[in-house]
Design brief:
Layout (H helix, E strand, L loop, with lengths): L1 E4 H6 L1 H9 L4 E5 L2 E6 L30 H8 L1
Parallel strand pairs: 1-2
Antiparallel strand pairs: 2-3
Amino acid sequence: MTTVNVHEAKTHLSRLLERVRAGEEIVIARAGRPVARLIPYSEPDAARVPGLDAGKVWISEDFDAPLPEAVLRDFEG
């Protein structure tokens, strides 16, 4: 990943876009602090269909029951 300052990004935007098109990621920084990231564009995934996995997942009746004291001690110390 390459970091460039804002002035360089404005001056060489076309070159930077060609590098991004080739798969490189470029961070644009102002005063040394990152403010933006140029990444290659990709088409969004297909739309999700609600209910596609219906019947494939099983959740126990007591899945949200309080944890046993021994387990809580391990988490809380």
